[in-house]
Write a structure and sequence with these properties.
6 strands, alpha/beta, Rossmann fold, single chain, 7 helices
Length: 185
């Protein structure tokens, strides 16, 4: 069977992107919206998988390490956890629970504590395309796990953002120099 590709749109939610989001990237995150939409549609039309690994938390969870690092964010069934902007309606229009789906993650990496690796391997996916936020946190940790699991990695530079420009630039270099990722426009 021929190889397959998957697009992972990581944490592109109101809390991470909207002006009033609890942990927002703000304008850098908002500026990549149309690029992500275009890529999602292109890959969907190509028959590729388009999945949304999306952070989920409980308010003031004493057992989650992020509770000590960041304000409460992406709480289930809140506005903050909804997909940001036009990506929300694109997802609703294309959500078929197979090619396009959203799944919960509770750690930075989309692989940590999820069945993502199993689902990708079942579908013969060997190349993953990474977009979303934050470049130097959740996108980076997902890329590191993908590297360790043997996936080919493509990071779309015009589809990732962070609230920390230094971290964003560092991560883009790290994808190329340490993970052998292809960083494309």
């Amino acid at each position: 069977m021929s190889s397959q590709q998957a697009l992972l749109i990581i944490d592109y939610t109101n809390d991470f992107v909207a002006d009033k989001g609890a942990l927002t990237c703000g304008k850098p995150g908002q500026s990549i919206e149309s690029n992500i939409l275009d890529l999602a549609e292109k890959m969907y039309q190509n028959g590729d998988w388009v999945w949304f690994p999306t952070d989920v938390h409980k308010p003031n969870d004493p057992y989650h390490p992020e509770s000590k690092l960041f304000p409460t964010h992406n709480v289930r069934n809140t506005w903050g956890r909804e997909l940001y902007g036009d990506l929300k309606s694109w997802f609703e229009d294309h959500n078929d629970q197979e090619k396009v789906k959203l799944f919960d993650k509770t750690r930075y990496s989309a692989f940590a504590g999820t069945d993502l690796d199993l689902r990708l391997r079942e579908r013969k996916v060997d190349t993953i395309h990474l977009v979303g936020v934050c470049t130097d946190i959740c996108v980076l940790h997902t890329a590191v796990d993908a590297y360790n699991l043997g996936y080919q990695i493509v990071v779309h530079e015009n589809c990732v953002a962070s609230f920390d420009q230094t971290g964003h630039s560092w991560a883009l270099n790290h994808f190329k120099s340490c993970l052998g990722a292809k960083v494309v426009e």
